[in-house]
Write a structure and sequence with these properties.
The chain is an alpha/beta fold. It has eleven helices and twelve strands. A hairpin with a 3-residue loop joins strand 8 and strand 9.
């Protein structure tokens, strides 16, 4: 029988659920709001009902399992969600066990940025590579590392937090306790903050006008003004590229991976920040200078920096891939896998 898995992207605003077959074909996708204010039990019940509805639509296929991407820090051994800024009240909550108890089905929990990285490795920009790193630019800056086709979690499941690399030691304070984190200079939140700082300096009437508009100021509106030639908006995105370039240069020097993927909603401003990013990487990374696509002598020696291909579905595909990989690992070990 053909097989499929359910991938879930559980965010603080939206809950998205997809059925994906073993070839990566999207069979079904649903999106609904995440009513976090009604409590975690309500959200999980809603999720489980939606999962059950999705599974029943494929009676002639075998369910491999369910993968769920969640924002926050996860104890990979216990499936406990230790902390999630987007899911208040879920601190130290046994998410995996609660969902498995309701569904009676194997569930694999993963950080949402790790899921996105796995999705891009499986079906997206890094599908031809076993090793890769992804940066996700959104409200914050997340990321994931894939080694040998599998997410690398580190010693305690907390690896892959490039958003908290220091790029400006005396820069803006970060809620993590550091200053000048990449997240404070390259996220959508950072773009809006820098735009408001420009308005306070009186350096951009266009940004001030946008801030007074009914829909307010957003990273997207700042990007649109950069495209239209507003100097202050362009300077903001040059600063974003500068920060990303510093962060990536350090990662390239440290890891020497073949490909680095940039995704998330912030990647929509790719053309606005890429020139400064590449200039900074070339300046700061001797590894990149030796392996840049235009300079490398052989196909195996190149270091690729590219935009993600799967958009907002990367996390869904990656989450669905999780139980498939777990089933493969069990088969290799001679263990029967049961969803």
């Amino acid at each position: 029988m053909p097989t499929f898995a359910i991938g879930v992207d559980l965010g603080g605003t939206n809950l998205r659920i997809a059925a994906v077959d073993e070839h990566g074909t999207l069979l079904e996708k649903t999106t609904t709001g995440t009513q976090v204010a009604r409590g975690r039990d309500f959200v999980i019940n809603e999720m489980c009902e939606a999962i059950r509805a999705a599974v029943t639509k494929f009676p002639t296929s075998t369910l491999v399992g369910i993968g769920i991407g969640v924002p926050g820090i996860i104890d990979m051994g216990t499936g406990m969600l230790r902390e999630s800024p987007n899911l208040p009240g879920w601190h130290d909550y046994p998410v995996r066990d609660e969902i498995e108890r309701r569904l009676g089905t194997k569930v694999i929990l993963e950080n949402d940025a790790n899921s996105a990285a796995l999705g891009e490795k499986w079906l997206g920009a890094a599908r031809d590579y076993d090793d890769m790193l992804m940066l996700t630019l959104g409200t914050g800056v997340g990321g994931g590392i894939v080694f040998g086709g599998r997410v690398w979690h580190g010693a305690r499941g907390m690896a892959g937090e490039p958003g908290h690399i220091t790029v400006e030691p005396d820069g803006p304070p970060c809620p993590c306790g550091n200053r000048g984190c990449l997240e404070q200079l390259a996220s959508a939140t950072a773009v809006v903050r820098m735009a408001r700082e420009a308005i306070a300096r009186g350096s951009s009437p266009a940004l001030a006008q946008a801030a007074e508009a009914s829909d307010g100021l957003s990273a997207q509106s700042v990007y649109q003004m950069a495209v239209q030639g507003d100097n202050s908006a362009q300077q903001i995105y040059r600063r974003v590229g500068w920060a990303l370039g510093i962060g990536l240069a350090g990662l390239i020097n440290l890891l020497n991976l073949p490909i680095y993927v940039i995704g998330g909603g912030g990647a929509n401003a790719w053309d606005a920040f890429l020139p400064a990013l590449l200039e900074e990487v070339r300046k700061r990374s001797f590894v990149y200078r030796a392996t840049a696509p235009e300079d490398a002598s052989g196909p195996g020696e190149k270091t690729i920096i590219t935009r993600a291909r799967l958009g907002g579905d990367a996390g869904l595909f990656g989450a669905a891939r999780l139980p498939m990989l777990a089933a493969e690992t069990a088969a290799d070990a001679g263990v029967r896998w049961r969803a």
